[in-house]
Design goal:
The chain is α/β, with parallel strands linked by helices and about 475 residues long. It is about 45% helix and about 10% strand. The two termini are about 35 Å apart.
């Protein structure tokens, strides 16, 4: 068919496509966001109060990087966010990271979040349900006039394994609910309501990412979790949908478009936001990230799971941290205590990594835990192996702090969590308005990724209808956007 005389033939017709429409609009309506885009939490305040506020004002959902922060700092940050976003009270949340070595920290942080009425929580690094994540998810549940169960709070677990996702997509174990009720932490009504719903209705499927990661690919992990989600929904007869988000490797318009094509209700970004002006990372650290390419990352021992062999993905370009951290773990495996380390190796450690006698580092570490968790300090005093682990963890912990604070003479030791997506992002913005660090705002990053994903999705729709679409149509270039 043709249009008006003397005009080109109409090959295909498509309705408008807006970035707001890329994900699930039930999800955005439920969480008070304009766009199906979540600015993910980055630990130790790398996702700052400022970043959360700017992201929410830009129409996104955002989580504050509360992991690794003290209760006092997180409390003050919550108050600042609430004050700044009194007109957007629900489109943000905080992070709860699993603390297997200090389980009381999970309880204390959940107490804090409940006390200040934080409505959304991103739960990371969990391998199984714990009473405190269930307590947060169930607190405030009640039935409405029709008898339907209504949530008061929303949990966003980040998962990279289907067996972990299953726990969060199922109702809480009855024994756990009963124990929470007996402890006076949940009411009988809250327990009854929680037994009817999945622990979480928003599951973030996390592929290869910065920090803690299983290095999975999104195209293999997401369909597996989606199939499991569908089966559990039928098995339990859920009335409300479980929304799956996509995280890990989200740093280009093509990746965003691909995530939505897989069926994601929302996307979550992480590593790339560390280079934004609102990031808590130092200027020196941000400059290192801006030079990263896709092969400039490495796995290194994790501070919080050091003894268990846990690893995190970090930047290796311009830093010696990955190999130095692996050296410490190798020493931990080979020796039973600091005194057993050969003199030459110990001297090298004290000169190059710790820049102080190891006994002095142990004294600082012991004093820290005497205030935070005296039992850990006592364990270090009694066991040479535990003492060695705590001293080595001092270096792993301080290395991320040095990167955040921008300690110049420690730049070689910076621990900067990021995945290969940082290189992808840098290649995409090269030569564009977003290449200079001063232009990388969290809002412009989000808007350009979403706009580009909409453009690419439209190009693919046309191609699927038989239109000869040039390859250049899939190469969206960043620009300054206003929405």
């Amino acid at each position: 068919m043709t249009s008006e005389p003397n005009s080109a033939p109409v090959v295909a017709a498509l309705p408008p496509l807006y970035p707001e429409w890329l994900g699930d609009r039930i999800f955005t309506a439920k969480h008070g966001a304009r766009f199906p885009y979540v600015v993910g939490e980055m630990a130790r305040g790398l996702t700052t109060v400022r970043m959360v506020v700017e992201a929410v004002r830009a129409g996104c959902l955002a989580f504050y990087g509360s992991a690794g922060q003290s209760l006092a700092v997180v409390e003050q940050s919550i108050l600042q966010i609430q004050s700044a976003l009194d007109d957007h009270p629900h489109a943000w949340g905080c992070n709860l990271i699993h603390s297997p070595q200090e389980p009381q920290m999970e309880e204390q942080f959940v107490d804090l979040f409940l006390r200040y009425n934080v409505m959304r929580l991103s739960a990371s690094a969990f391998m199984q349900l714990t009473p405190d994540v269930v307590r947060f998810a169930a607190k405030g549940m009640q039935r409405d006039a029709s008898g339907a169960v209504r949530r008061a709070r929303y949990l966003f677990p980040k998962i990279s394994r289907p067996e972990v996702a299953k726990q969060f997509m199922s109702p809480p174990p009855e024994a756990m609910l009963r124990a929470l009720q007996q402890a006076g932490q949940l009411t009988a009504e809250e327990c009854d309501c929680a037994a009817q719903l999945p622990v979480a209705e928003s599951i973030t499927v996390e592929a290869d990412s910065g920090g803690h990661t299983d290095n999975r690919t999104l195209t293999s992990l997401f369909p597996a979790v989606a199939a499991l989600r569908d089966a559990l929904a039928v098995e339990h007869g859920y009335a409300a949908p479980i929304h799956l988000g996509a995280a890990g490797g989200i740093g280009s318009p093509g990746a965003v478009a691909a995530a939505f094509a897989l069926g994601a209700a929302y996307v979550m970004t992480g590593s790339i936001n560390q280079s934004a002006v609102e990031s808590g990372l130092s200027e020196a650290g941000r400059a290192m990230l801006a030079k990263a390419d896709v092969a400039d990352m490495a796995m290194a021992p994790a501070s919080d799971m050091f003894e268990m062999g846990g690893q995190v993905q970090v930047l290796k370009r311009g830093a010696l941290f990955p190999q130095r951290a692996r050296q410490l773990y190798s020493l931990y495996q080979r020796y039973e205590g600091l005194d057993a380390i050969p003199a030459a190796e110990r001297e090298s450690l004290e000169k190059n990594l710790f820049r102080a006698p190891l006994e002095e580092i142990w004294g600082q570490t012991r004093d820290y835990f005497l205030t935070r968790n005296p039992q850990i300090a006592k364990s270090g005093e009694e066991s040479p192996k535990v003492r060695m682990a705590l001293v080595f963890r001092w270096y792993l912990s301080m290395s991320s702090r040095w990167a955040i604070e921008g300690i110049a003479d420690r730049q070689a030791d910076y621990q900067i969590w990021c995945g290969p997506v940082m290189g992808t992002f840098n290649r995409w913005v090269s030569g564009s308005v977003l290449e200079p660090l001063e232009n990388r705002t969290v809002s412009q990053i989000a808007w350009n990724l979403l706009e580009g994903a909409a453009v690419i999705s439209r190009a693919q729709q046309l191609r699927s209808m038989g239109v000869q679409v040039p390859d250049a149509a899939f190469n969206y270039r960043p620009r300054i956007l206003q929405v």
